[in-house]
Amino acid sequence: MATASAADLDALTAALLNTSGNVPLHNRFRALFTLKALKNDDAVRIISEGFKDESALLKHELAYCLGQIGLSSALPVLQSVLEDKQEDPMVRHEAAEAMGAISSAGSLPVLREHLNDPERSVRETCEIAIAKIEWDNSEEGRNHRASKPEDVEPVVYTSVDPAPATSGLLKGKPQPTDASPESISTLRANLLDTQLPLFERYRAMFALRNIGTPAAVDALADGFVDDSALFKHEIAFVFGQMLSPHSVPSLLRVLEDGSESDMVRHEAAEALGGIGTPEVLPHLKAWMARPDAPRVVRESCQVAIDMWEYENSDQFQYADGLGSAPTPSAVAS
Ligand SMILES: [Fe+2]
Ligand SMILES: [Fe+2]
User: Fold this and answer.
1) Annotated binding-site members
2) Which ligand lies nearest the alpha carbon of 94?
3) Residue 181 placed within a domain
4) Residue 279 · residue 262 · CB < 8 Å
5) What is the C-alpha to C-alpha distance for residues 234 and 224, in angstroms, rounded to an integer?
6) In this predicted model, what pLDDT tens digit does every residue of 207-246 receive, in sequence order?
7) DSSP code, position 117
């Protein structure tokens, strides 16, 4: 865990909240990811102040980071974001997901209240977050927590996921699913089965992420025809964690599709920035400058270009989903 001096915290606050008025968005993101790495109440307090901002992109990332930090001190602000019907649905969705990540049974009533929310992505997120909190308290969830992390999940993925990967069982203990064609085809079938609860489909999604082969990428990409924007944005997010060049063609199709929802295109842009292969840069530059593109798509391309440049520099590379956005060295870890 990183530590920070009072002066570091002041500098991070000024950068995140853009107190000077001229901090570029990608530098605000860098400050945010440094705060996320602190994982303490100071970070929660500073990040919580950012919800007054105008940028939905920034605010949804604040909520995401509060969930990943995992402290219950973030629950009041997350609940107020979820309950604020004037707030952008992408931000409200991320607040609900963060409540699922923190996994307090005390969040269940407010999440249940929003199962009838007018915004589909908020309703669906609440459904998944409730299932996650209930699963965390189930026998399988308890067994999972009692296992060594490397026994159930590849160590490369340090994120708290909205649903645990589908796991096999060996002598009652959770095991990663294997990468055989049969296993991938079963997971693909579950991923695409719209009759299954979203939580189960997400479990298959994260199992395919953990398998990580080109065949698993293909199975995930098949999910981009779904009619749930939430579901599709999570596939793009997972591609941003996997960093497989094999996913680039499907992500570019999503980014370039003007009829696709902003939330999905945003996540595709950031995944492309993280993957950082040469052919994606002109697309990111083009969409950042397109006056007809939604703000969240333009801003995502701006952040993605910063990620692309970072991945293509000789600095240390991070691999943690959008957590892969670069972190400044202002704070010692
Ligand atoms: Fe999200
Ligand atoms: Fe996002």
Assistant:
1) 60-61, 93-94, 233-234, 266-267
2) 1
3) no
4) no
5) 10
6) 999 999 999 999 999 999 999 999 999 999 999 999 999 9
7) -
